[in-house]
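just leaving the lab so this will be short. what follows is a protein written twice so to speak, once as letters and once as structure tokens for the fold. can you read through it and tell me how you think this chain folds. anything you notice is useful, everything is just below:
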Amino acid sequence: MSVAPRARVVPAALLAALVLLPAAPAAAAPGDERIVGPVRVTGGVRFLPDADAGDPSAPPTVVSGLGPRRFLGTVELLPRRGGLDVVNELPFDAYLYGLAEVPRSWPTATLEAQVIAARTYAWHVMGLTAYRDFDICATTACQVFRGAEVLRGPRGERWRRAVDRTSGRVLLYEDEPILARYFSTSGGRTYANEFVFPSSGPRPYLTGIEDPFDALSPLHRWEVRFTRAEFDAILAQGRRLSTATPFAAVERIGAVDDPRATIRVTGVDGRTAEVAAIELRDFLGARAQALDPDRFPPRRADGAARLPSVVPTTRYAIGVEGDEVVLEGYGWGHGVGMGQWGAHARALAGQDADEILAAYYGGIRPTVAPDLPRTIRAGMGSARLEEDVDGDPVGLRVTLTTPGDVRDRAGRLVARGLGTWTVDRVRTRSGTATGSRLVVTPPAGHGEPLEVAPSVNQPGLAWGPGRELGSVHPGETGAVDVRTEVNKPVLLRLEARRRDDGAVTWTRELGLAERGPQWVRVFAGDAPGVAPSTHRFVLVATDVTGTSADGEDRG
């Protein structure tokens, strides 16, 4: 019987208790490899893994309070608004790896057009210096950035290739990156920039164009219906709109494609209330879903999913049909620049990325820019701070899955790190976060000499054909369990050693293991020549200092 590992390291026990803040700093000074307790830092803390942040296969850093979420590059935590803000600093193209703006199953030309537009937009926003602690936000207010999750998700490799193939390519106007706005669905025509974003004014490359390709989108046309009772109930919750209830009529004042149009509601007593179309959109969106979450948002026209919001855009006609108020709308998103669904359809029609971009950005085609920024800082927003089982604050957990530096915001070394660290605000006696100081707590065992228990090999469970366990091959019937225990976070490696002379004939890197018992199950059928009768399996641990041990008796 041959055996090979088909499962990840599975900790038998996870670290459950984390040291809470002492009143005084830890005895060891920041930067001392021996620190075993909390250390206080001022202004923020940075986790800098040794792994190449530009390598999409690099082990990510995991932050618990964002999902959890995995990141390439540096993770920085800053004391803000009573909690902790998270910033991810990484190489410019590695940032693009983490964008989630279009389905990665779409045609290659669409993905490449999206990458080039996003790269240009990010560069443009960086030049505005609009944010205090970072260059660009991670939401739809800027660009949707999800970190290492994107490459590790379905079809992540297609997105990576689109980023790599377009490396350095951007859209320039007068030697500057353009304001490369983009959105989902135009409804058949895009807007000029100044109509939607008057504060940024007209742009010669952001003019309104006819966009017949947009008809592919399931949101090209949409409809929302309210009963009279529902509409009255919603209007009654508004300060101004309630004056026109019960209503008798509702009409749009201005063209459907005019974002400055208003909606006038006339009550049965003749009184009227008038609000901006965008105001009614937001009001209906907030109130209708609370009124009946089973009905709102309604289904799309194709029935495949719900609308992304109750009223997706300000482009809607509104009127009364019998006992219903009907909104007939067009598109989704702000409508300026590149329509993503239109770009999708253009790619299906044979247009390449350059042609797609030229169609939406005034004829501008991408060019290679030699002076792109080397790095970018993405603001991930405020992370949710955790509490223990008694409701006491614990903070935020950050897991370095590869060795790295833990530094304060000024760049001073706190410690070399591996495993799960905890960061919390300095708190008052009542538990309220205060000031700019943070408490950084290393994982249990950090700073202790490495101890590893000898590896134990035991027969694993037998599984017949048709049964499933991990990734067992059909027909496999045997397994070997390999167990050890470590006293601190380590990187584990599994080795197959010949019983007669101890020679290593096969290895596999297993990655991070936290303190405590560890076991790996290896299954038959994957490594010819490696059998329990001639080999034993050994788990080798390496700590953050580079020290390795396997607990085996060499005598």
Q: What stands out?
A: Confidence is low (pLDDT under 50) at residues 1-30, 463-477. The chain is about 15% helix and 35% strand. Residues 21 and 307 are 47 Å apart (CA to CA). Residues 108-215+335-368 form one domain.
